[in-house]
Each structure stands twice: as C-alpha cells, then as structure tokens.
Amino acid sequence: MEIIQTVQQLQQLQNRFKKLNIGFVPTMGALHDGHISLIKQAREQNDVVVVSIFVNPTQFLEGEDLETYPKKMEADSKICELCNVDYLFAPEISTMYSGDEVLIKAPNIRGYTLEGVKRPGHFDGMLQIVLKLLNLVQPTNAYFGKKDAQQLSLIKLMVDNFFLNVNIVECEIVREEDGLAMSSRNVYLSKDERIDALSISKSLKYAAKQIGSGELDCEVLINSMREIMNKIDIEYVAITNRKFEKIEKIELGNSMILVAAQVGTTRLIDNIWI
Ligand code: PAJ
Fold first, then answer.
1. pTM of the model
2. How many whole angstroms from 192 Cα to the centroid of ligand 1?
C-alpha cells in the first residue's frame, strides 16, 4: 500500500489506471467495522482501491468535536493494509482548501431538515469535500454507508445535478453484536451511556416489527419509539420517504425511520430503510 499526501501524486494515478476500475472509500478515519465493510466491498468490485482519511473541517460546526475527533492514523493505515487497499490518501488541510473558495450549497429539503436543523451548513461542507475528492480520485465506484442516510442521498443528488461520472454504491449499516450502529463517535460513550444508547437501535427494531405486523401509522410508530428511548435526549424521530419528505403512512419500499439523539455529550444517529 502506498500512502499519498499530495494532489499531484493522486493525479498521476489516473494516467496509470486509465482502463481499470477504481473503487473509492472516503472516510474521516478512526476506522471501524462499518468502514471496513465499505473497503471490502470496494476491494471485491474494483481493480484498484483508494481510501481517503481526512477530518474535513468545513463540515464541523462551531462547538462541535473537530479538535477532539478521534485520530488513529497508524492503526488506520494498518487496517487499510490488511484490507489490501492500494492507495491511502491522507492530505493536509492546506492541500484540500485554499481559503476563499467557490462553495457548494446543499438543497433546502434534504440539506436543511433533520440533520440539517441541528447542524446547519454541515452538509454544505460535506458536499464541498466529497466533490473535491471525487474529482481528484475520479473513481468508477464510490462507497457510502446508509448509516448517514441524508449524506448518502445528498451525494447521489449532487452526482445527478452536476453530471458527475461515478457510480455511488449504497452500503448496509454495520452494527455491534448488541445492535448499536458502529460509529467513530461511540468511543466517547461511558459504560452506562452505551447501555442507554442501545435504546436507539431497539426502538428501530421494534418499529420494524410493528410494521411487519401491519402497523403503518407513523404517529403510532413514533410514539412507541419515543417510549423505548425515554432515557435519552431525543433530537428527532422522523419517518420520511426516500426524498426525506415526512410521511403519515409507511410506504413499503420507500420509507425510512431516522433517529438522532444525544446520549450524555455524544450525538448519535441511526436509521432503518423500510
Ligand atoms: P465517516 O464518518 O468516517 O464515514 C465514512 C463512511 O463510512 C460513510 O460513507 C459512512 O456512512 C460509512 N459508515 C460509518 N459508519 C458506518 C456503519 N456503521 N455501517 C456502514 N457504513 C458506515 O461520513 C463521513 O466520514 C464524511 O462525512 C465523509 C463522507 C468522509 C466526508 O468528509
């Protein structure tokens, strides 16, 4: 595996791999099994695999965890090597940003509802860096997790809107054995908080079960989920269609249940696609 830090090194790859499929997995590091499942999928489906690790400052809001975001470059690079990654792109901030830049603005509904309410501008910064990375790597396939459903949907929209030549692959959520969705932020949870955090995936599972028994009323489903999560600080429980528009009745095959909650000082998100 080669570690790359400059744009020039990355651009040279394009000439070298013109006729090969490039699979790309963008990350912010602190790699866990969720990331690894994306990398494995990329490895299976492409000739060349590029992973990026870049804690993107423009997607963090004032007061968020940019400074404390877990950084584990050495361990991450070992993981990538074990997963047979060909190139690890780990640029400096000054390589990716020049100061006063042309900005990308996320659209109103998908960019400024749910996650976008508590984190206004987060998706603008996320799209900005993903566009830069896609342009630099020019992958055939780029891999993103359903865990960040709104992010994934916005990236797909950006690819459509800007006619980008890349196939976006949607990857399933990887969970701990007890159901907690894997996240780089789970390390912030204390023992007790981790137990409380389980109510998020439990409530989603319960809702899926209720839907399976014929309950399609979103208000009923949301109320029972709120009861299960009564120990944590729920930010939102929402049921939407795949365009992130709120719905009143579950439409099988076109619905999502999304949760964000604060557990202690840690903000967690999770969802299921129905
Ligand atoms: P990061 O949080 O590091 O996540 C990188 C990728 O891993 C994302 O596509 C995310 O959805 C996926 N992922 C995280 N946890 C997962 C899980 N439990 N199961 C499956 N996939 C999971 O998302 C970002 O970084 C950044 O916003 C980025 C896209 C890299 C832009 O900066």
1. 0.97
2. 25
